[in-house]
Design goal:
This protein is α/β, with parallel strands linked by helices and about 230 residues long. The protein is built from 9 helices and 7 strands. It has a single domain, classed as P-loop containing nucleotide triphosphate hydrolases (Rossmann fold, 3-Layer(aba) Sandwich). The longest helix is centred in the C-terminal third of the chain and has 22 residues. The radius of gyration is 17 Å and the shape is globular. It binds adenosine-5'-diphosphate (ADP) and zinc ion.
Amino acid sequence: MSGTELRIILLGCPGAGKGTQAKALCGRYGLSHVSTGDLFRAEAAAKSALGRKVEDFMKRGMLVPDEVVIEMVAAKLDSLAGGWLFDGFPRTLPQAQELDKVLRDSDKRIDLVLNLGLRPEEVISRMTGRRSCPGCGEVFNLKSRPPKAEGRCDKCGGTLVQREDDVEATVRKRLMVYEDLTQPLVAYYRTEGLFEEVDGSQPASEVTAQLAAIVDRVAASRSGAKG
Ligand code: ADP
Ligand code: ZN
């Protein structure tokens, strides 16, 4: 699949499994994985000026203001060569419109928007069980993917932690924010004919297989159409 410069957006509510699927797809198709959540967490951990600005929004389950997100993504886009997959961006209509504009200015376009569908009740149980390793970034789940030894990372032995914004009250808040601000993107991309949805409640490997089948189809039709 190398040589296909695919540009993909992965949508889905918090906890739908975007991070896991993004890693799988990027590995398979040689795309750069851009997660605005990961970028913001890295800035916050480094205590940069940007990190200090966004930390409080994240802890409270609120979105970072559009202009801050857009500025960071535009800088990131400049540094990307080849295809990419955005995970967690865009998250609002203004972000989506701004992305379209930036891409248009450089004669590029989005090839595909993938949505991971999941019911809110399922999200709550998944997210409150999520634990991650600050050392290597590996993510576990007390229900669906428990670590072999309690509280320890299988990969590097680090002590697992719960993300501050994964506590139940904050998860509920994030879901409300998603419904209000991010859900409208589904209609936006549907009218552009780029939208495809997969059932995110299936086992991760099954979700990956279905997503990959869609990407293969789009990649094939693109190389057929040339450009
Ligand atoms: P999840 O998808 O599990 O909610 P992320 O890791 O994508 O989590 O994002 C974590 C937090 O980072 C969000 O709750 C929000 O505060 C901030 N964030 C990430 N991406 C964006 C974005 N595109 N616009 C606004 N805020 C964002
Ligand atoms: Zn680890």
